[in-house]
Amino acid sequence: MKLEKELVAASSVPLVLSILSEGDSYGYAIIQRVKELSEGEIEWTDGMLYPVLHWLEDQGFVRSEWTKAESGRKRKYYSLRPDGRKALKRQKAQWSIVTGALNQLWRTEHA
Amino acid sequence: MLENLIGEWRRGMSGRVSEETIDELESHLREAVAELARSGLTEEQAFERAAKELGTTSGLAREFAKTNYGTWLPIKLASGVGLLGVAAGAITLLLNLDSPGLRFLLWSHVVLVTLGYSTTFLIGALGICYVGQRAFSGFPRQQLRGLARATFAFGWVAAIATIGAVVLGAFWAEEAWGRYWGWDLKEVGGLAVILWQLTFVAAHWFMRRNEQVLVLMSLLGNVVVGMAWFGSNFLTETQAYGTMAWVTLVIALAVHCALFVAGFAPAGWLRRSNAV
After folding, report:
1. CA-nearest residue of chain B to A88?
2. Does the beta-carbon distance from B27 to A27 stay under 8 Å?
3. pLDDT at B220 > cutoff 90
4. Which pLDDT does position B248 carry in this prediction?
5. Which chain B residues contact residue A47 at CB under 8 A?
6. Which residue among B47, B52, B164, B246 is the one 20 to 30 A from B89 at the CA level?
7. Has residue B235 got a pLDDT over 80?
8. Measured in whole angstroms, how far is the alpha carbon of residue A20 from the centre of its chain?
9. Is the pTM higher than 0.90?
10. Which residue of B has its CA nearest to A30?
11. Residues B57-63: what's their mean pLDDT?
């Protein structure tokens, strides 16, 4: 099932923040993690992630640093800042309200 | 082969997004190509697929343009005020073109010193706006980079105008008072302002990545120029032009120091809601 474009866009910030809360990561690995978590159902255009990461950095939610991997390849790693952790907490609370409300409605429908 | 393809891709991206972003996207492409090559594709096939999955150059540019904030309003206003100041100075000099040589020299000195000092105040005003916006809503890094570039450009204008003013002032002083330099407080103030402006411009060269400190430094420029322009009036009667209650100056200096410190507080420390 292909997700609506708007839903994919709206979920990008909580997804990226949540993935970074697991540990520092870089663009390519973040996309792979999203594919793995959604079993391929969430399809991001690879290039769509980077403007989101830059926006999060502009907002002070994440910081970035170039590092050299063991393979010799340069990677830009992102890590969560304290403001990012707070933003993630708020996002969790907001998404819980939405999913909670929808679950209740759909449970009633099926009862 | 792969290097040629990536080189060509980079040329296509050049000018559409920043060089750092191109580096980051290239790093992504290389990861994807390596992964696809492991699954049996040739380098060329892997690159084509990875580039397609990354998105077209125009599509990527469109996505990044959504996070482009444009020129910050206070920079536009400061540029407008600065241009008006230059125009007013030029008109003043044109109106005094028929003045005797010594008088015209003095007019040129006054116009340039006003331009140099006022431009430093404009840079300081941008610093104050930065502290204000950052306290309430945070300050995007991209905008901060633009602001640092603007203060660098203004800094050059201020330094060149002030140096010109001091040199012309020295020639005028030689003609009028029989000496180029007399170490009076106004002259020492002018020298301090030049030293500050050159330090400010040099800091932009050496601390390019620390935009926050560079922008906050502009507040100290207000203090230096305030002391040079008005502070010396309280200590000497030589070249004491204009008046200002010393209390006003002390309050202004204290406010600037407080703003400088506030500039290091966490972004959005005065914001009421913390919506993402």
Report:
1. B276
2. yes
3. yes
4. 84
5. 25, 54-55, 59-60, 63
6. B246
7. no
8. 8
9. no
10. B28
11. 84
